[in-house]
Amino acid sequence: MTDISLEALESSSVHERAEVLRELGLHGGLEHLERLMEIAQVDDSSAVRLGAAAATADILSRYRVGKRREKLSDARRVELLKTFKSLDPKVNPGLFLVLACVDLPRCLDRIRVGLRDPRWDVRQGAVVGLRRYCNAEAVSSNDLLRGRIIGFLKPEGRLPQDALEGVIGVCAEAGWEDSRTHIAQYSGREGSLGEAVENALTRLDQLVEPTSLHGVWISLGLDAGEVNPNPQPRAWWVLGAETGLEGKPDGAFGAFEWKAIDSRMISVKKKTRWSRIALRRLWLLRSDINVAGPGLQFGGRTYHKAVGEEFLELVGEMCNGLASVGKAERKAALMPMFDMLPEGTDGEFAAACLEIGIGTPAAAVKRMQAMIKSPQKAPPATWYWLAEGFHAGRKKAEATKAWKAYLDKAGKKDRFVDNAKERLGRK
User: Fold this and answer.
1) Are 221 and 234 contacting, i.e. CB atoms less than 8 angstroms apart?
2) Helix (H) or strand (E) holding 294
3) What's the CATH architecture for 211-224+231-305?
4) What is the pTM (predicted TM-score) of this model?
């Protein structure tokens, strides 16, 4: 049994009860579900009721994909569903999040009832639950499910307008291109419905654009909507115009050729063999940074576009991994990355790292010197990468001077401090 004290759930303090619920959401197990669902229905505080439903959903979110799904049998899921169907969503609209993470096709029936409920807060809870249900990798290849949800948009099954707008948004975020005609039938409407349609069609256009696949994609080891303090090992993909790199969870990576077949399929050539990979392109909220952006799902994993420091970290990882191969092979693997550099200082640092990796450290030195001479104040890490360029060019004195300058300018917790100290032989 997960070692979490439940005594605080009996506290008269709403804050204390809510705090243990947050802890259960992160670290609780299946053995806590019944107690949580009781609290979700009967606690005097609406905040605590919602917190209990969220904690229940978060626990269940850890049992939706791969081998972890097998730990919660379909028979047990059916039992949970029967319990949840008897509960009143008016008391707690968060129950729809729980239904989403029980993750059975028949959960959709109860969510659809919620979308038609006369009470606004219940309908909104159903939309939120539907989004969490649909965005998971667990349902990414379920064509039957997709068809049923797109069917919610048909005029003969007309939902209340706010629920209709919610379903339109969910279909677009889920990347369901075959929902386009059903969404477009509401084009030209005034007010919020017309705005929802316009936003959804724009989102679908963004997701099917061929070049939107290009870039660096990182899997955090979590399914979309999963809350888990112990995720799977990370993995990553780099997709250039025609070539790519795959970083596996064990740290190994390899190059491949690729081409798009259509919006839901790519073909990948590893060594001499081409194979097809079905994927889903969608729009997801990254829970770790609370920012929404493009996502990919395939092979049991969810990938997000790399941002800021992640891109730089990945470039460094790639350069280190290729250090033992020949210069020509290393250059061929790294050159496509120049077309994917993010804007800003992290992009400049990544470019310097790449220049060092392909054997042109003088270019990295020149790039960093230009940043230092710029009217804009250069961040401390500029001197770190200047030193790395000098070091790769075998200019020891200049490198030492630049590393010392970096340490003088950087705070104690700056991301390259330990590296610079190690270069200088300091502890």
Assistant:
1) yes
2) strand 291-298
3) Beta Barrel (2.40)
4) 0.85
